[in-house]
Amino acid sequence: MTDAITDRDDFQATSDPGLLESADRGQVELLSYADLYLLWERQHWRVQDLDFTQDRIDWHERISPEERFQRMYGLSSFFAGEQRVAAELGPVMRACPDEQMRIFLCTQIADEARHVAFFDRFYSEVGVLDSENLRDRLEETSAHLNQNFRRLFDEMLARRVDRLAREPEDLVTLVETVTLYHMVIEGMLALTGQHFIISYNESVGTLPAFVEGFGNVARDEHRHVAFGARFLREMAARDRRYRDAIQRTLVECGPAADGVLSPPWAEEGARTRSCSGRR
User: Fold this and answer.
1) CA–CA distance, 34 with 99 (Å, rounded to integer)
2) Confidence grade of residue 16 (pLDDT, cut at 50, 70, 90)
3) In a domain, 8, yes or no
């Protein structure tokens, strides 16, 4: 049995509290913003180095059409989600009150763009969709998303980012945005989905290049979560308003976040059984 991917030294190096037993005891030592930047430099990886030859064989010859359809929700959520946040992070970076914070968030913007490029290359070279360019692939894959995904990204996150673009001095909105994005979307939803998808593919021996690249994506996300944990801890200690903003955001986004992991076909099946009286 293989070790969990999060046990690797490069994952542990991020100091994401979610990976450290010491966090449960309140003893975690979070990396500084400067340390997180240096870690980003050491953890570079290149999408162009991945070889998707076996992945294409697996997708078309070893994975059944029904399973391909079922896998599409997880893939689509990440592909579309990476594109959404790559486009939204600019105002968040500009609103940060400290230069070291802004420098790190510039690296995160680069990370998210690389994640979009990773999914685009996987979709293109493996032949996951019929579309022939990035814009059309994003539009085609969006058909697999559910309404909770759109509520979380296109309403809750976009509304806050638009406010920051107009009022970058609004630190309460900045705290809400980091809570929603770094801790809920990345820390709770993305990392859960990533580790499940990676573990499943490893257990059945499919999509080796995707697993390698997605593991790199997950490592990047742990670094981002470590930034969010440090930022929110500092802001919560600074003013009660920011602690209230964290709690308020978690309560507001809870129902949508809870439903994001459920694919549309599962929801439709549940509604069908409910209407027919089946359990």
Assistant:
1) 10
2) confident
3) no
Instruction: Confirm whether 142 is domain-assigned.
Output: yes
Is the distance from CB of 224 to CB of 17 less than 8 angstroms? Answer: no
Residue 141 structural domain: 33-38+48-276
pTM attached to this predicted model? 0.88
Got the DSSP string for 21-41?
Answer: GGGGGT---PPPHHHHHHHHH
How many CB atoms within 10 Å of residue 18? 16
CA angle 67, 70, 73 (to 5 degrees): 145
153 lies in some domain: yes
pLDDT computed for residue 14 by the predictor: 82
pLDDT tens figures, 145-170: 999 999 999 999 999 999 999 999 99
- Nearest-angstrom CA–CA distance, 87 and 136: 17
User: What token pair was written down for 172?
Assistant: 């309460």
Over the stretch 59-118, which tens digit does the pLDDT of each residue have? 999 999 999 999 998 999 999 999 999 999 999 999 999 999 999 999 999 999 999 999
- In this structure, is the dihedral angle defined by the CA atoms of residues 112, 11, 156 and 89, taken in order, positive or negative? negative
Per the structure, the count of domains in the chain is 1
Q: What is the pLDDT of residue 266?
A: 60
User: For residue 114, what are the contacts with CB-CB under 8 A and spacing of at least 6?
Assistant: 47, 220
List CB contacts of 131: < 8 A, sequence separation 6 or more. Answer: 137, 139, 140
Domain of residue 81, CATH code:
1.10.620.20
